């Protein structure tokens, strides 16, 4: 039996096959013709087209905040990725598929991801689910099987998820819709308010990657961005500073830290003491923001440990489950 792991994320989709490693890692995006509403490209090609062709091409993200919001286009996107990863033809051999899901997900949302996999040819009995943060705990070899508290914070594209585990059980888990995409939106809104100029989401993301920092600093770096002047409708070129970006993202950063504080406050005292001693594991693409781990540590008063490869921590943990599936089934999430 072939075995696959799929991390169907807000920002990226990763497909891994046991014994072969990662087969595909592409943006979870579809390029749509703004005039005809027809699908133009999917994944990496779509992202490239959206960044080059202005006006007539729109980005469609069928997965938001870690859950499917557009069933039809998620189905189209996943089928495309399966073909591209060269695993679709193998479905005649009944593959086992392990799918990562957010910390807080409703029964309806779980059934939606199951239906997506069934639509691409996977049998219901061969579909298994695992919590994203739990997969990270496995990849980082945290002692989740012991009677002590372990805390993982995953700052992804659409959500920030916190999970506290002990004795292989989830003590508490929380997912808030504030993460990398929210930082991009904050930059878009800042530039609109300060300069009366509209910029694209991909431009905001580029600014975040180039200049982003969780606090004000002495950086003299700047970034030139083109946008649409909302008064004249003419193209406007702006020079944005690092401290402007820090100002723009201040509120969502505060909200992310507050969500971590609340999760820790609701933790039983004895487990909270373990976490204060061992530290908090920080992962996800959002953890790459400069200065974020330092700011969280200062605000909460606990050591923050950022994983080496935060973008792959979930899929790496899922690979470990596939490698020892019989002995790790107790860590999976029930579908119903």
Can you summarize this structure?
The chain has 12 helices and 18 strands.
Characteristics of this structure?
5-stranded mixed β-sheet; alpha+beta; single chain; about 40% helix; 18 strands
Task: Describe this entry's structure for a reader.
The protein is of the alpha+beta class and 336 residues long. It is 38% helix and 27% strand. The chain is built from twelve helices and 18 strands. Strand 2 and strand 3 (21-27) form a beta hairpin. Helix 4 packs across helix 11 (313-323) and helix 8 packs across helix 10 (292-300).
Number of helices: 12
How much of the residues is beta strand, in percent? 25-35%
Computed structural class: alpha+beta
- Chain-averaged pLDDT: 91
Which word captures the global form?
Answer: flat
Low-pLDDT residue spans: none
Largest sheet: 5 strands, mixed
Strands, total number: 18
Give the termini separation: 24 Å
Helix content: 25-40%
Radius of gyration, in Å, reads: 21 Å
Helix and strand string, N-terminal first?
EEEEEHEEEHEHEHEEEHEHEEHHHEHEHH
Physical arrangement of strands within the biggest beta sheet: 3-2-1-9-10
């Amino acid at each position: 039996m072939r075995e696959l792991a799929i991390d169907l994320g807000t920002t990226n989709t990763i497909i891994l096959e046991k014994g072969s490693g990662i087969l595909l890692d592409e943006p979870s995006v579809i390029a749509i013709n703004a005039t005809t509403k027809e699908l133009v490209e999917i994944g990496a090609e779509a992202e490239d087209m959206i960044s080059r062709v202005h006006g007539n091409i729109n980005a469609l993200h069928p997965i938001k905040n870690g859950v499917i919001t557009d069933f039809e286009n998620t189905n189209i996107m996943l089928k495309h990725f399966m073909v591209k990863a060269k695993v679709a033809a193998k479905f005649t051999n009944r593959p086992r598929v392990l799918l990562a899901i957010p910390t807080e997900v409703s029964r309806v949302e779980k059934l939606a991801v199951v239906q997506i996999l069934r639509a691409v040819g996977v049998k219901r009995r061969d579909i298994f689910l695992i919590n994203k943060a739990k997969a990270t705990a496995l990849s980082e070899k945290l002692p989740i099987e012991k009677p002590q508290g372990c805390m993982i914070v995953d700052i992804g594209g659409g959500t920030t998820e916190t999970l506290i585990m002990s004795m292989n059980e989830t003590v508490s888990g929380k997912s808030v819709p504030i993460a990398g995409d929210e930082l991009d939106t904050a930059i878009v809104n800042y530039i609109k308010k300060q300069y009366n100029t509209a910029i694209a989401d991909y431009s905001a993301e580029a600014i975040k990657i180039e200049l982003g920092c969780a606090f004000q600093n002495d950086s003299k770096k700047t970034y030139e961005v083109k946008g649409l002047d909302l008064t004249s409708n003419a193209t406007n070129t702006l020079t944005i500073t690092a401290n402007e970006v820090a100002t723009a993202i201040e509120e969502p950063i505060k909200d992310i830290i507050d969500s971590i504080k609340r999760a820790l406050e609701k933790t039983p005292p004895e487990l909270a003491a373990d976490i204060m001693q061992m530290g908090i594991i920080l992962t996800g693409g959002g953890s790459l923001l400069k200065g974020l781990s330092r700011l969280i540590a200062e605000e909460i008063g606990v050591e923050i440990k950022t994983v080496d490869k935060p973008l792959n921590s979930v899929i790496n943990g899922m690979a470990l489950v596939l490698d020892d599936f019989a002995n790790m089934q107790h860590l999976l999430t029930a579908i119903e």
